[in-house]
Design a protein that fits this description.
The protein is an alpha+beta fold. 36% of the residues lie in helices and 14% in strands. The protein has one domain.
Length: 76
């Protein structure tokens, strides 16, 4: 953890990691990343020390704006 925490905080301070939480249902964390693609997110997280050591696994889920809200702006 002496290298993992600073590496994670650097991602946050660099604007690549927007938010992070502990999971309430199972052991683990959730990271919200600011990347252009799932591949970029995997590369970003894959560079963390514990991921490089093969000690962690991740599931990547693409998210984006709730586009139907745009209908409210169009007066529909």
């Amino acid at each position: 953890m002496p290298t993992e925490v600073p590496a994670t905080l650097k991602l946050y301070l660099d604007g690549k990691m927007e938010q992070f939480w502990f999971r309430g249902d199972v052991p683990g964390v959730v990271f919200l990343l600011n990347t252009a693609s799932v591949d970029e997110a995997a590369d970003t997280i894959g560079a963390l020390p514990l991921a490089r050591a093969g000690l962690l696994t991740f599931q990547y889920i693409p998210v984006g704006p709730l586009m139907p809200l745009g209908m409210l702006l169009q007066g529909r």
